[in-house]
User: Which sequence fits this backbone?
């Protein structure tokens, strides 16, 4: 029995296959790059993503953070507990719901998040300097569109820089 139930007539065309392979390769390289760079700072990639979510969205509940990270609440709780133990976040009373707690970044967490982002952006700048400016602008649009479409497909709001109004 075929593992893949898709009919031969529904297979993607060559251009789509090459596009999929290129995006997959890029994502894989960035995942390994992130792991290699971020883990030098004594946090995991997931913990860094949590800090980035908090930097982008401000204080949020565990449920909101879990949704943003696309993780279940128990995993997100462990991530937040570890970050709290290391002094990068703190739990604070929710301003309008006495039953809920907000997770917010500390100054130490903001400093770490900024440091990691600066390192990643310096590396990105070196990579992008080798790409023609017109191609860079076009690539930003394509990647932004792909990210927005992928986010919508899984029921998420558009990611950061989903429109031309942002400065990214």
Assistant:
């Amino acid at each position: 029995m075929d593992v893949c139930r898709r009919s031969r007539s529904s297979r993607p065309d060559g251009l789509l296959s090459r596009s999929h392979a290129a995006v997959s390769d890029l994502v894989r390289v960035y995942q390994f790059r992130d792991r290699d760079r971020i883990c030098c700072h004594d946090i995991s990639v997931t913990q860094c993503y949590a800090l980035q979510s908090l930097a982008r969205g401000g204080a949020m509940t565990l449920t909101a953070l879990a949704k943003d990270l696309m993780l279940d609440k128990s995993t997100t709780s462990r991530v937040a507990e570890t970050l709290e133990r290391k002094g990068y976040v703190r739990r604070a009373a929710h301003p309008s719901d006495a039953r809920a707690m907000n997770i917010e970044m500390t100054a130490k967490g903001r400093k770490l998040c900024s440091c990691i982002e600066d390192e990643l952006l310096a590396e990105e700048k070196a990579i992008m300097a080798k790409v023609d400016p017109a191609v860079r602008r076009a690539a930003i649009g394509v990647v932004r569109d792909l990210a927005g479409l992928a986010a919508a497909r899984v029921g998420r709001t558009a990611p950061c820089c989903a429109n031309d109004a942002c400065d990214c």
Q: What stands out?
A: Residues 14-38 form the longest helix (25 residues).
